[in-house]
Design goal:
By secondary structure, this protein is mainly alpha-helical. It has three domains: about 1-35; about 40-120; about 120-150, no CATH class. The protein has helices at about 5, 55-75, 75-115, and strands spanning about 10, 20, 125, 135. Strand 1 and strand 2 form a beta hairpin.
């Protein structure tokens, strides 16, 4: 990706205003862009996606190794360890998925709030100098902080 790609704009699919293609949401209406297919599937950890983190994949590999070793050596201890590692990996994966769902729900709430504030994105072109809240063109004061406009 070169520098020109970073500043390339395309119209928002919700309000039609120009938005950077590298942006994850529209700054005008708050619309959250959809991820591209496969984006965020394997990642180093954190939020979003399917929860297939590097640690989960490494844990699965270790559990498979322990199961193979248990079968090769006929070791009950290795089999028990493989089961415990598999349960820990499953718990980690489920926790990551739950965090991802909660993050998506919070993002949806924020998007809903932004959509309520900006019913007509073309009408609310101005922002309060004090708090940054979008305000109507003919507003006399900010609805959030109360700053008077002259």
């Amino acid at each position: 990706m070169n520098t020109e790609d970073l500043y390339k704009e395309s119209p928002c699919s919700n309000c039609g205003q120009p938005v950077l293609e590298s942006a994850s949401f529209c700054a005008h209406c708050g619309y959250v862009k959809k991820k591209r297919m496969g984006e965020g599937l394997f990642r180093s950890g954190g939020k979003g996606g399917s929860g297939l983190t590097v640690s989960v994949l490494l844990g699965l590999g270790f559990a498979v190794y322990l199961a193979y070793r248990a079968a090769a050596e006929e070791s009950l201890q290795s089999l028990i360890m493989a089961v415990f590692v598999l349960l820990a990996v499953l718990q980690s994966w489920l926790a990551a998925r739950k965090r991802a769902q909660q993050t998506e729900e919070k993002a949806g709430e924020h998007t809903g709030e932004a959509m309520e504030q900006a019913e007509d994105p073309l009408e609310q072109k101005f922002f309060c100098e004090n708090c940054g809240t979008p305000v109507a063109e003919d507003a006399k004061e900010c609805p959030k902080c109360g700053m008077k406009f002259g």
